[in-house]
Amino acid sequence: MTRYDAVEAASYRVAREISPSGLSSWRDAVAPYLLPGRTVLDLGAGTGVFVRAFAAWFPDVEVVAVEPSADMRSASGLPMLAGDACAVPLPDASVDVVWMSTVVHHVRDLAACGAELRRVLRPGGVVVLRSLFRERHGGIGLFRFFPEAVRALSGFPTAAEVADGLGFVVARLEAVPQVTASSLADRASTLRQQADTLLRSLSAEEFAAGRRRLLAAGAVESGPVVDHLDLLVLETAGAV
What is the pLDDT of residues 49-93, one digit of tens each? Predict the structure, then answer.
């Protein structure tokens, strides 16, 4: 999994964190899995956006956060365990749900990760992913301003590749809307190239040109920025 340094972690908090109200559609999307009394592993918890959101939305659920980057853990200000997708520091059969938000494209060994997920999941447990998949990117508005960033998707798996690679079967796949920013102008003000895998693929000239397009649009367009990421729910074979 990718490990962010201190500068990147700080940039991530500015550029990538979305308010709980902006993420409210995700509350309804994941509610069938985060039932009272369940234990959720937030794997690759980053700066703790969903640790905080789940605590507010589902107070009767226990969330255990695991993050490989020490700087991300520090930036979160939350208790987190050091660990990796292929080395989860939890006992066997200790969680009911594994949550992975914009993480799976950073996992280089899906088979090893899948073995770890099956190890820590209790019988009947599920893996719930919030992600962008290579073949399903039409709901991402960033490409309107940074069309060259599409080439970075070559490093992203498809939903089927994730399921097959991890060794699970697809139980649910659908796009979920989120309010990424209050306006295009607000989006431009928080944009940080080093905080986004897609933008990091751009040259300095491509990024500058895209930012100019974003600023120009923000000067004349109002209203919230709504993007769509996918919810992918995976179950063990035979559970569907």
Answer: 999 999 999 999 999 999 999 999 998 999 999 999 999 999 999
Distance, in Å, from the CA atom of 148 to the CA atom of 167, rounded to the nearest integer, reads: 32
- Please work out, in degrees rounded to the nearest 5, the angle formed at the alpha carbon of residue 154 by the alpha carbons of 206 and 143: 40
- The pTM (predicted TM-score) of the whole model is 0.90
Count Cβ neighbours within 10 Å for each residue of 118-137 and write b for 16 or more, e otherwise.
Answer: bebbeeebbbbbbbbbbebb
Q: What is the largest CA-CA distance in the chain?
A: 54
Cα distance between the two ends of the chain:
29
Angle, in degrees to the nearest 10, between helices 159-166 and 110-120: 60
Domains of the chain by start residue, with CATH:
6-235 (3.40.50.150)
Ranges of beta strands (E only) in 51-146 are 62-67, 81-82, 95-101, 121-131
The partner residues of 40 in beta bridges, in order of sequence, read 63, 97
What size, in residues, is the chain?
Answer: 240
Of 101, 107, 113, which Cα lies nearest the Cα of 167?
Answer: 113
Q: Taking a C-beta distance cutoff of 8 angstroms, is the pair 214, 180 a contact?
A: no
Selection from 233, 225, 161 nearest residue 188 by Cα: 225
State pLDDT tens for residues 152-209.
999 999 999 999 999 999 999 999 999 999 999 999 999 989 888 899 999 999 999 9
Strand partners, 133: 136
